[in-house]
Each structure stands twice: as structure tokens, then as C-alpha cells.
Design goal:
Blueprint (H helix, E strand, L loop, with lengths): L7 E2 L5 E2 L29 H10 L7 E5 L5 E11 L8 E7 L8 E4 L3 E7 L4 H11 L2 H8 L12 H10 L7 E4 L2 E4 L15 E4 L6 E2 L2 H10 L8 E6 L2 E7 L4 H12 L14 E10 L2 E11 L6 E3 L1 E4 L8 H16 L4 E2 L5 H21 L6 H8 L3 H10 L3 E4 L2 E4 L3 H11 L21
Parallel strand pairs: 8-10, 16-18
Antiparallel strand pairs: 1-2, 3-4, 3-7, 4-5, 5-6, 8-9, 10-11, 12-13, 13-14, 14-15, 15-17, 19-20
Helix pairs in contact: 8-10, 8-11
Family: Belongs to the MYST (SAS/MOZ) family.
GO molecular function: chromatin binding; histone acetyltransferase activity; transcription coregulator activity; zinc ion binding
Subcellular location: Nucleus
């Protein structure tokens, strides 16, 4: 990712933006001499000022360089613009997309952050996208995106995707407060119209009701008697707890959870009819209650054997193994049901990356310990992973061959060790002995 970093979480839990110092003179980039001392730049000529003024206000679609929070300039595309209250005719703020990076970094910027000398009038988007792609290494692309896992809900054709991006191009909520964390949002979420003028929302971390003002949240917290999600606790191991929430019994909670999740998932379909879903909410527990870490949803009845519809780890808790824990937990439920499972299709690239990592580690661990031959069906029975997922995973690792009309697993010990090393550490372990759960079909 080079010099770009996603926002970090401060010790008190707030999301800290690395704010850049303002430029020394309007659009001018700061200059320094060889010894580091500031150099006085000559004033702009009247011709330069007139030329710049003629560009304003910038049109939607303009390509320009923008100073980001790391104090460096990056290429952006103007997505939207709005008048600055009480400003002059050309006083606008601009909503920009950093063309090298994920949409979640899109933001409103002031004119002084833009380098007007870099304005591009005509750009072939296909050529530019190709150049941008070539500039970024695979590692850089993964670095910027690896915390964002979205599974399923990407059943959009090209026309629908363009319509979706047009409708959701501008983030409507900039930040939320959830428990002890203030979190910068990543994407648009279709909150009710009365919240459309709110840059920040305040969530009750237990019932997920949301409010416009801090005082409303404080009043609510004095009355709210929940200290955990409104469902059945089905798992407790140490400080980790998992709650099953029935969307039909807890409709408002399920809908609020979808609103919240959409702020961090780009192409997630927002389901208003949550009756058909079960939500599995992972929490960290302390003496103040059970604090939501992430969740996955699951259809109560899936004809396609989907054992997971949507998955999210909230930003303050990412890179701690919780995503892999949620995936592993979904498969433990499948084992309890006596079924094989698979995540809802189609998978996003990042969803596939996350699942492929889980499948790889689980299968390699078994192959490493197993003596003698083992079939794909036997692996499927042991892991609850669908046979097709096992086959594609092993093929990607060059651990399978096609001989005499059938697939044969070739588990060379040295190759297994090499793949295990590359797979990295696993996520948090699910202690199955702590799981107390009855499959939905058996519930009264």
C-alpha cells in the first residue's frame, strides 16, 4: 500500500485520522531548502490566478491530485461537490475517490487540498485503470483490502453495479460511536430519511438502536436493560461469547444490525425482511457486558446448503483472528446439523481469499496428520466443507491429480510443510465442547 494506511484505533478506542498539516499557501505544496528550512515562494502571477479561477468550480468527474492525511498527494476523481455555506460563487467542497485505493477511503475534501496544476481534462478511464493496476503490486492491493471481507451479496450484473455505485457513491454517515469506539465508516448505508443530515450516529452497543445526538444515547443507556445481544447465548469460552439472534423474534435488532453492517460492506444487499435469517453475534465480555465484535448471518432454510450469508468483523477488532473464528464457527454449526456447508455465492475476491485461507489450513492440518490414503468425500465428512470447495482448494495447491478417471490427492510431506508455512497462523480456535446449540429445524 506504500505510504497509505487505513485509520488506526487509538488507545481510548476512537478511530484516529492521520491529519495532514495544511499547505503553506492555499494550493501551494510546502517547499523546503536543502537544510530543511522553509523557502519563501514567489507570489502567483495574475495570469496563473485567473487560469486557476477559470477551472472553478471543478466539475464532477475531474481528475486531480489531492493531499491526503499522510501529507502526500494522490490521484483522485471528483465524485460529487457541494457549496460551502456562506461562501463565494466558487467555494465548494469535493467528494473524491482515491483512484489507487478501495472506495472506503472516499471522503469530502476542501479546495486547498487539491493541486489545481494537476487537473486533467480528458482521461481514458480504461487506460487509467490499467495503469493504476500496473502501478500497484499484488501485496499493496492485498494490504489495502485485506481487512475487508464480504461474502455473497454480490449478485449484481454490470448495469446493476453501475446503478448501485451511483446511488451509494457518497457516504451519508461519516462516523459512528459504538460502545467505547468512534469508528470512521467506509460505505453508504440506506438509513431512514430522517437520518440523512447526520454525519455521525450514536449506537447503543447492546440493542443497536441509533440516535442523532450523544445526549439521546446517554438517556437511552440509562433505560436500556440489555447487556448483550437479544438472543440465546450458545457459546462461552473465556471472554468470548456467541449469541444466536432470530430475525423473526428480534426484527428491529436484525434490521439495525444490517444498517450497521452496510456501513462497512460495499455490495451487501440490505435485507429488510430479516425473518428468514439467524444472526450469530460474536462478543467480547467483561464486567460491563458483552460487546459486539462481529457477526455472520445464515438463512434458516437454504436449498443450496449455504451455511453463511454475510460476515463482518468490525474495524476496531480486525486483524485479531476473529474473521477466521466466525468462518470456523459456521462450519461447526454445519457439523452439528450433520450437513456440509458453503458460503453464499457468488463470492467476492476478498471473500474467496478469506475462505481459501481457512480451507487451506484445515485441509493441510488433516493431510499432515493422516496416515494412508484419504478421499475428498472423507475430508468433506470430517470438515463439513463442501466437496467442490475441497477440490478447488487442493487443485490451487497442486495437491491433486487426475488419474484413471478420478481425482487422487498427492500429499507430499515437504509440499505440505511449505504450504502450511505459507498459510500463516490460524485464527482463534473454536472450543466445540463450549458450544451448546440446537439446529433451527429442531427448535420448537
Amino acid at each position: 500500500m506504500g505510504s497509505i494506511d487505513t485509520p488506526t484505533i487509538t488507545e481510548n478506542g476512537s478511530t484516529q485520522s492521520h491529519a495532514a498539516a495544511p499547505a503553506a499557501d492555499g494550493d501551494q505544496k510546502p517547499h523546503a531548502s536543502a537544510n530543511g528550512a522553509p523557502v519563501e515562494m514567489p507570489p502567483e502571477s495574475e495570469a496563473t490566478k485567473r487560469r486557476r479561477a477559470s477551472m472553478l468550480p471543478l466539475e464532477v468527474g475531474t481528475r486531480v491530485m489531492c493531499r491526503w492525511r499522510d501529507a502526500k498527494y494522490h490521484p483522485v476523481k471528483v465524485i460529487e461537490r457541494r457549496k460551502v455555506p456562506y461562501g463565494g460563487a466558487n467555494d465548494y467542497e469535493y467528494y473524491v475517490h482515491y483512484t489507487e485505493f478501495n472506495r472506503r477511503l472516499d471522503e469530502w475534501v476542501k479546495l486547498e487540498q487539491l493541486d489545481l496544476d494537476s487537473v486533467e481534462t480528458v482521461v481514458d478511464e480504461k487506460v487509467e485503470d490499467k495503469v493504476t493496476s500496473l502501478k500497484m503490486t499484488r501485496h499493496q492491493k492485498r494490504k489495502i483490502d485485506e481487512t475487508h471481507v464480504e461474502v455473497g451479496h454480490e449478485e449484481l450484473d454490470a448495469a446493476s453495479l453501475r446503478e448501485h455505485e451511483e446511488f451509494t457513491k457518497v457516504k451519508n454517515i461519516a462516523t459512528i460511536e459504538l460502545g467505547r469506539y468512534e469508528i470512521e465508516t467506509w460505505y453508504f448505508s440506506p438509513f431512514p430519511p430522517e437520518y440523512s443530515d447526520c454525519l455521525k450516529l450514536y449506537f447503543c452497543e447492546f440493542c443497536l438502536n441509533f440516535m442523532k445526538r450523544k445526549e439521546q444515547l446517554q438517556r437511552h443507556m440509562r433505560k436500556c436493560d440489555l447487556k448483550h445481544p437479544p438472543g440465546d447465548e450458545i457459546y462461552r469460552s473465556g471472554t468470548l461469547s456467541m449469541f444466536e439472534v432470530d430475525g423473526k423474534k428480534n426484527k428491529v435488532y436484525g434490521q439495525n444490525l444490517c444498517y450497521l453492517a452496510k456501513l462497512f460492506l460495499d455490495h451487501k444487499t440490505l435485507y429488510y425482511d430479516v425473518d428468514l435469517f439467524l444472526f450469530y453475534v460474536l462478543c467480547e465480555c467483561d464486567d460491563r457486558g458483552c460487546h459486539m465484535v462481529g457477526y455472520f448471518s445464515k438463512e434458516k432454510h437454504s436449498e443450496e446448503s449455504y451455511n453463511l450469508a454475510c460476515i463482518l468483523t468490525l474495524p476496531p477488532y480486525q486483524r485479531k483472528g476473529y474473521g477466521k473464528f466466525l468462518i470456523a464457527f459456521s462450519y461447526e454449526l454445519s457439523k452439528k446439523e450433520g450437513k456440509v456447508g458453503t458460503p453464499e455465492r457468488p463470492l467476492s475476491d476478498l471473500g474467496l481469499l478469506s475462505y481459501r485461507g481457512y480451507w487451506t489450513r484445515v485441509l493441510l492440518d488433516i493431510l499432515k496428520k493422516h496416515k494412508g490414503n484419504i478421499s475428498i468425500k472423507e475430508l468433506s465428512d470430517m470438515t463439513a466443507i463442501k466437496a467442490e470447495d475441497i477440490l478447488t482448494t487442493l487443485q490451487s495447491l497442486d495437491l491433486i491429480q487426475y488419474r484413471k478417471g478420478q481425482h487422487v490427492i498427492c500429499a507430499d510431506p515437504k509440499l505440505l510443510d511449505r504450504h502450511l508455512k505459507a498459510a500463516g497462523r490460524g485464527g482463534l480456535e473454536v472450543d466445540v465442547s463450549k458450544l451448546i446449540w440446537t439446529p433451527y429445524k429442531e427448535q420448537s
